């Protein structure tokens, strides 16, 4: 198990218009994670969440494996390590 805390989701006031599939807590940070089954380089829902709540980190996971800021679906099990590597201070 990557995270021992509960996993949440977020949807906008107008259901079906914007949703983020996973909201996880990593220490003091709350991290939105959008998961797309196909190819995606961005997601309007994740952008909307980020504008509204200004999280220090966000994650998009999809079938794209050639982009540095997207964690491929096959590597999602390694999310915690990917976050620490991608968001080095």
Question: In what range is the share of β-strand residues?
Answer: 25-35%
Q: Helical content, roughly?
A: 10-25%
Shape: globular
Helices and strands, in N-to-C order? EEEHEEH
Radius of gyration: 13 Å
Mean pLDDT: 80
Low-confidence stretches: none
Provide the descriptors you would attach to this structure in a database record.
single chain; 89 residues; alpha/beta; 5-stranded mixed β-sheet; 2 helices; 5 strands; globular
SSE layout and pairing:
Layout: E1 8-11, E2 19-26, E3 29-35, H1 44-53, E4 59-62, E5 70-72, H2 79-86
Parallel strand pairs: 3-4, 4-5
Antiparallel strand pairs: 1-2, 2-3
What can you see in these coordinates?
With 89 residues, the chain is of the alpha/beta class. It is built from two helices and five strands. It has a five-stranded mixed beta sheet with strand order 1-2-3-4-5, with helices on both faces. It is globular and about 35 Å long. The model has no long low-confidence stretch (mean pLDDT 80).
Quick summary:
Helices cover 20% and strands 29% of the residues. The chain is of the alpha/beta class and 89 residues long. The relative contact order is 0.18.
């Amino acid at each position: 198990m990557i995270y021992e805390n509960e996993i949440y989701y977020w949807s906008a006031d107008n259901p079906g218009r914007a949703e983020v599939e996973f909201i996880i807590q990593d220490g003091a940070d709350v991290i939105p994670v959008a998961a797309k089954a196909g190819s995606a380089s961005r997601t309007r829902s994740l952008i909307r969440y980020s504008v509204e709540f200004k999280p220090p980190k966000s994650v998009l996971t999809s079938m794209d494996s050639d982009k540095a800021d997207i964690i491929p679906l096959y590597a999602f099990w390694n999310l915690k390590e990917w976050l620490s590597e991608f968001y080095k201070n």
